[in-house]
Amino acid sequence: MEKLFRAHLEKIITLTDEEFEYIKSHFSVMNFKRRDFLVRKGEKVTYVFWVISGLLKLNYVDDADKNHVVAFAMEDWWEGDYYAFFNQSSATMSLQALEDTQVLCMTLDSYNTLCREFHKMAYFFLEKANKGHISSQQRILELISTNAKERYDKLLNRYPVLFQRVSHTLIASYLGVTRETLSRLTAQ
Amino acid sequence: MEKLFRAHLEKIITLTDEEFEYIKSHFSVMNFKRRDFLVRKGEKVTYVFWVISGLLKLNYVDDADKNHVVAFAMEDWWEGDYYAFFNQSSATMSLQALEDTQVLCMTLDSYNTLCREFHKMAYFFLEKANKGHISSQQRILELISTNAKERYDKLLNRYPVLFQRVSHTLIASYLGVTRETLSRLTAQ
DNA sequence: TGATAATTGTGAGATTTGTCACGATTAATA
DNA sequence: TATTAATCGTGACAAATCTCACAATTATCA
């Protein structure tokens, strides 16, 4: 696992053994069972997570009590309620394990310390944030410019493995349509 | 203008006069007339922009030749084709002035230099990227969980001034609906 | 100012998507 | 393994949105 995390960091920055040890000391490992909540709506958000193994869903419940999958997070992905994390406020969304999942977690204090005392990590997070911002913008583009079928095809093409691990109901929710609509689109 | 930009930076970081001069030297001022393109689809992206005065739209043309407003940018906002900028590739979108507009522009070299040699700026951009990521995620949430009328109301509520400066056609495009649909929604 | 372009509203009908309901199948777990 | 829960497909109908068309109004700028 440590090797995986180090490899993850070294895709963007280079590290000595000592530097990696220093970084590692700011993270802790946590284990969750399928269906466990890593973040619960309304409760204070203490961590963001890096997925070692398993699968997470970030879920939003709207005013009409409908669920919406905002994001999935697989191995090697970061996830969390970033808004609540950075504002140290209570969660607007929930983060739940869809499989037994092991994560590294980081507090805001650790984040700030790492950024302040070790500028390589600030650069690492900057790169991550930029990429996250860009991919969010591309998802917005997809949502306003393509229909559900095209979004389905694109997702299947990019993350085929997701379709073996996640129910169609959740895929539909992520795509912004009902499961019935998705079922009909894919029947053809 | 310089004061505005300094105030913009100092919302996040503190600066001495010398530091601000150093930062400023990495930006240049450019002026655009209404309808001018700051970024043209297909052409190499050299800059990202900070709007001093005026108004921009970020526009995407899909495979069916339909236009989609990805974002507006008013005074005090950053905008650009970030994907193409960071990858130094050709533009996937266009950025066009909706009013006569004055901007500060920054090259990727300047960005990298600023981040490397002046860590306060890396932190500034990190904060901006995080906030951009979060607000994109919130827009995704809106797109998958609310109908056009709710999105319209929310936008009107947050940026009332936008409705005095931008045509309904463009607002509709930003909201992901046709102008006819928006016209009918707001007639009631 | 006068010609031209852009914007807006609205009707009619097609298309897409949602809602609710039901039964069949598969997966989870006590 | 027996029971319960989750998932999936589909029919029937409702609601939302799109498409195309046309005319009226407003803005632009040569």
From TrEMBL, chains A, B:
Q: Which Gene3D superfamilies match?
A: Jelly Rolls
Q: Which domain of life is it from?
A: Bacteria
Which InterPro entries does this entry report, sorted A to Z?
Answer: cNMP-bd_dom (IPR000595), cNMP-bd_dom_sf (IPR018490), RmlC-like_jellyroll (IPR014710)
Q: Which residues form the signal peptide?
A: none
Q: Give the protein name, as stated in the record.
A: CRP-like cAMP-binding protein
Which residue range or ranges hold the Cyclic nucleotide-binding domain? 31-117
Please tell me the species this chain comes from. Answer: Flavobacterium circumlabens
